[in-house]
Amino acid sequence: MAHAGHDDIQSHVKTYYMVFGTLMVLTCITVGVSYLHLSIPLAVTVALIVATIKGSLVALYFMHLIDEKKVIYWVLALTVVFFVFMMSVPFFTNSDKIPGTAVGTVW
Amino acid sequence: MEIPYTVEARPDTGLSNGKLGVWLFLGSEVMLFAALFSSYILLRVGSEHWPHGSEELSVPLAFFNTVVLISSSVTMVMAWASLKMNDFSKFRLHLGLTILLACTFLVVKFFEYEHHLVAGEGPWHNTYYAIYFTMTGLHGLHIVGGVIVNSYLWGPGAKMWQREKERFTNRIEIAGLYWHFVDLVWIFLFPVLYLL
Fold first, then answer.
1. Closest Cα partner for A62 from A15, A5, A4?
2. Which residue of chain A is at minimal alpha-carbon distance from B191?
3. Which SS3 state, helix, strand or coil, does residue A21 take?
4. Pairwise CB contact (< 8 Å): B38 & A90
5. In this structure, are residues B196 and A45 in contact, taking their beta carbons and an 8 Å threshold?
6. pLDDT tens per residue, chain A (107 residues)?
7. At a CB cut-off of 8 Å and minimum separation 6, what does B189 contact?
């Protein structure tokens, strides 16, 4: 991407505006779905799926991850491993049972 | 002494040092926010009662801010694209709009904070407000940081364009990567704090 030519950039500009439109539509969907008063697990699932699609669009097109060098993918892969571990920590607490106390459940 | 690999790619990574550096920095930033999101999950599942975001916070204001921040991401990438097309005046326009949109976001956030603080709903009010102020406050500080860097690149830093065009374009790309990350974090903060 760093060495893209003038014509390449002009075609990218069209993509940027298309991504912008998609992000706006998805933002409206996120807010619209919240007014449907879905059950918490379903609402969380829908909100996170839409947010993940939006985040992916930003990362792929605005941050040019769709066309990057391998070393960046490796850096991000390592980040994802630690990220997944970090997000799993609250779920580990669910199995951290103390004898004689009530066991909570996640969600 | 000349700083190496500011424009040309390093033979081993295929990237300029600045670009690799900012991606490593963003990796650490992901972990910083991951710790807060993880804390949010722990606090939420561990509490007997958790308020619905839309009952406590203003969804229309947050929706407006989401539109503002996404728009600023587009203007940021357009600032970079303008430099690649050798159009400095359009670059100035787009980066200026990015800064303006970022300031709009901060002003809206200020009024949102003020409303809650006047109503006695500060971080001390309950766990929900504590995590809300922590996460949005840290995100807001990132916005302030981005505004400072972008303002420098729009103003005095732009002189570099006269003598080192490619190096300046790389700087804008790197500043853009940071800015898009800040936008990306908000994309997750918005539904998590305001809509669930």
1. A15
2. A47
3. helix
4. yes
5. no
6. 555 666 788 889 999 999 999 999 999 999 999 888 888 889 989 999 999 999 999 999 999 999 899 999 999 999 999 999 999 888 887 676 666 665 555 44
7. B135, B136, B139
- Tokens for A107, please give them: 């969600």
Q: Using H for helix, E for strand and C for coil, what is the string for B76-122?
A: HHHHHHHHHCCCHHHHHHHHHHHHHHHHHHHHHHHHHHHHHHHCCCC
Structure tokens given for B13 = 């990574």
Contacts of B31 in chain A (CB under 8 A): 79, 82-83, 86
d(CA B131, CA B193): 9
Nearest chain A Cα to B82, which residue?
A9
Dihedral (CA of B120, B124, B128, B134) sign: positive
Nearest CA in chain A to B13: A71
End-to-end CA distance of chain B: 54
| Distance between B119 CA and the closest CA of chain A, angstroms | 25
Confirm if B138 and B130 have CB atoms less than 8 A apart: no
pLDDT in tens, B69-124: 999 999 999 999 999 999 999 999 999 999 999 999 999 999 999 999 999 999 99
> Hey, is B49 helix, strand or coil?
coil
User: Minimal Cα–Cα distance from A99 to chain B, Å?
Assistant: 18
How far apart, in whole angstroms, are the C-alpha atoms of residue B146 and residue B134?
18
Contact B74 A83 (CB under 8 A): no
**Subunit contact B196:A63, Cβ cutoff 8 A:** no
Q: Is A2 helix (H, G, I), strand (E, B) or coil?
A: coil
Residue A25: both structure tokens together: 């539509």
What ipTM, to 2 d.p.?
A: 0.92
Contact call for residues B66 and A20 (beta carbons, < 8 A): no
In angstroms, what separates the C-alpha of A103 from chain B's closest C-alpha? 11
